[in-house]
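Methionine--tRNA ligase: structure, please.
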Amino acid sequence: MTRRYYVTTPIYYVNGAPHIGHAYTSVAADVIARFKRLAGFDVFFLTGTDEHGQKVEQAAQAAGMEPIAFADRVAADFRDMYDKMAISYDDFIRTTEPRHAEGASALWKRLEENGHIYLGAYEGWYALRDECFYGEDELVTGPDGTKVAPTGAAVEWVKEPSYFFRLSAFGDRLLELYENQPGFIEPASRRNEVASFVRQGLRDLSISRTSFNWGIPVPGDPKHVMYVWVDALANYLSAVGFPDETAARWDFWPANLHLVGKDILRFHAIYWPALLMGAGLELPRRVFSHGWWTIEGQKMSKSLGNVVDPRDLVETFGLDPVRFFLMREMPFGGDSDLSRRAIISRMNVELANDLGNLAQRTLSQIARNCGGVLPAQGTHTAEDTALLAPATLLPQIMHEQIDRQALTDALEEVWKVIRACNAYIDHQAPWKLKKTDSARMNDVLRVLADALRIIATVLQPYMPDSMDRMLTQLGVEAGERDFAALDTPLPEGRVLPAPQGIFPRFVEPEAT
Ligand code: ME8
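Here you go.
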């Protein structure tokens, strides 16, 4: 039986252009999706755009456009960013698509049928930037002395008729979920925050608005549109065909992993499971919330004018160095800073020196001293085995890390092997063996080529383009690049193409 894996990113608001924060979550999901595919899983990787709600409506107005035309433009820009970042999504859902309206409406109707929705009137605080209702007790004093949301977003007093979801009835079941399935929310520190929020008692959730109409009409009462978060969360169901449980993709439900930023954990770890419980649907296996990027030490914001478009970074540094930097610099789950200096340092030390040089040294010696063909596998010495044994374990060790979203640790695991290869090549000095023991030289170079093949195979999810080139230079054919293929050694005598540097050092333009 094929093993299935369903991973999602948040669907991003189309009120602004794609930025590095969006690229980050999507690259992380992409690494996971690519890794699972290489491990033989049938993967469904979903992403998309969140196009309804007052915030998007206002952004469209400010641009002098109809909301749908505005959303079309920004959604296309997100796809362009994805193409430039090599995001291998299987589906891109837009909440303005009919298939999504159908899924979201069906979810609503199930909740209504099950008695979890009632009509009332909402009176309270709303933060448009967060598209979130806040209780009085959650507000804090902002820099100018006014009350603001805990996120710093401005709040307004809203009073209007509204449908409510009986969220208050789900507190105990949610706490049970966090208790019985600790992996449901990761990292653990965030799980504790969510659990203590729930323990304080949940209020029913206002799930419709009447003061604007850019949204999915409430079934049976089209004066109301659905609250944008109910609409948005439903995307994870509508993309797999809900409510048609005979749809081919329905087998992917429940999702294995919702990857989100810490800003939207509450919606995914409280509202979403409660809505699913209310609708009698299975719960996702896991919600992982990652940390926050600052830019050169500052919060990224439109007002500071420091919003980073990932495409600009790719233009300057190249795609794979940027993907590598994002995955390497931020301990997955923690916060981190993006700076030009840090990118260049990672590029020059880890990519150019550690990995690039290793490949170049190995391949150029094979080209020069082995007639450009892959040498035979010799008898392994203790040192050869000491190098190859941990390399061989990489797919398995990393798989366990990837399943925990320990994406940075998994890279560190590969770098341990890369550093060991560098120590090995220095110690074995194959260039000296040419005259004294050419048979051993061949064996050493073959050991290095085998280690590099494993390294390049397991790094494909992080740096697909460069690792594609490295595998080609190592003589690994297209059908030999998944983890299962690593069990079969490459035949000796395979002709290798002329080696070419894969990770050039980055030199500041003014220094050239
Ligand atoms: O919240 N660092 O969309 P959104 C790291 N539409 N990640 C960041 C980041 C930063 N500085 N800034 C943004 C929404 N992100 C809703 C989601 S899902 C059913 C609906 C990433 O456009 C991070 O993943 O505001 C965060 O959760 C997401 O962008 C917010 O995107």
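Notes: The chain is about 45% helix and 15% strand.
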